[in-house]
Amino acid sequence: MKRISLTQYLIEEQRLNNSIPAELRLLIEVVARACKTISHAVGKGALGDVLGAADTENVQGEIQKKLDIISNEILLQANEWGGHLAAMASEEMETIHPIPNRYPMGEYMLLFDPLDGSSNIDVNVSIGTIFSVLKAPEGMATPTEKDFLQPGTRQVAAGYAVYGPQTVLVLTTGNGVNCFTLDREMGSWIMTQRALQIPADTAEYSINASNARHWYPPVTRYVKELEAGKTGPREKNFNMRWIASMVADVHRILNRGGIFMYPADAREPDKPGKLRLMYEANPMAFIVEQAGGAATDGKMRILDIQPITLHQRVAVFIGSRNEVQRVTEYHAA
Ligand code: AHG
Ligand code: MN
Ligand code: MN
Known about the structure:
This protein is an alpha+beta fold. The chain is built from eight helices and 15 strands.
């Protein structure tokens, strides 16, 4: 079989469809290289002294793990000097990170969740990195947080890496979704799946059911109907999976369908869910839509939400189209 590397794919895509300008191609290659470095650190585990908690909290008040900080640093350092970016923003940094003056400034802005699924790091369960790419607004001089506050429809690229039994990179630039597997011996990303498509129907769902008592009625109704199986209103049995790493759950959905939910609930009525819009929900929604799936916050398409702050949270219903549509309709009922 002919092996197509990430580099060859990007260059051919640039030539054929003109969908990837040279600067964006460089950006994607640099992020992919950073993910390779993170994968290496993850793979070392205890041998690399990367497990366990750091002594710090992030802006969301969550205890940071060592790997959260290491991955954040790897992405920052890899992306600072290439001249392709104007600024970066991350789950692990309260404020945006403009490119230092000593480097040239590019026209793109990068957002990331450096390490998704932090609670799984120390127990050797799949974790990942999520990223989203926006264009700097026309005429921007010094980047500010405001420049990042663009709806997900404006993303020019999005992707994620999963550090699991294999390390994979899933990527979209708005022209379908492709998957690359890291060849660890060669150190290169090789295309292993082309034009991924999520089936519209599914018999698999993902939700942290330990929060059931806090759910709002539309979510309770939807999940109860799934649980009722063949003799219930859906007249079909459903299976449940919850990895507690959104990247890994969405990767499964991309491969065999499913619906992933992290709803808002009554635990913290002021917070619209747990996941963050700009570097978790938006990139995943872009990828899933590009693969024929759907993503809403229960009321509207995630990609249409106008962000108000960098770290804002959002409820997420994402995956197989018909199931996302159904649970969204229950919210309107
Ligand atoms: P992060 O590790 O970046 O903070 O994100 C974790 C998120 C998401 O990946 C996962 O689906 C969810 O939190 C798990 O939440 P529970 O702990 O409620 O299961
Ligand atoms: Mn995350
Ligand atoms: Mn994270």
